[in-house]
Amino acid sequence: MTAAGVRDLVTRLCAAFEQERDALATLDAATGDGDHGAGMMRGFGRARDAVAELGDDDVGALLVAAGKGLMAGVGGASGALFASLFLELGKVAAGARTLQADHLAEGITQAVATIRRRGRSEPGDKTMLDALTPAAEALRAHAGAPLAEA
Predict the structure, then answer these.
(1) For 2, phi and psi rounded to 5 degrees?
(2) Is the pTM of this model over 0.85?
């Protein structure tokens, strides 16, 4: 995935969270304050703006910018947890012009460690780790493969 692909991905994620804002709010209201949809939409809006403004082809720098946008825009623990994924991916892909499957596998693995520590959770606790952990394992199983194949 090139820098243009990263920008497109963040833009599409922003649009998806905007579309699902009310559904996320309804789900969050069952156990919280109902602001998760608005917060995620706001955070991905900041992430979208950050990657659009960064005139760089370094995919790592773009992913870090997206993570910082999420951190600034999403309140509470969700901001730090979702931002961790982008920040760790950005660290692993620093200086790269193309995001490879190996970057993604290592970045997700690092994000899982960070999220476990920050969220004080483990796989099986019904958190985002239940999706990220097997994703990292599947990507590692395709080491060296093109990103689309992995």
Answers:
(1) -85, 180
(2) yes
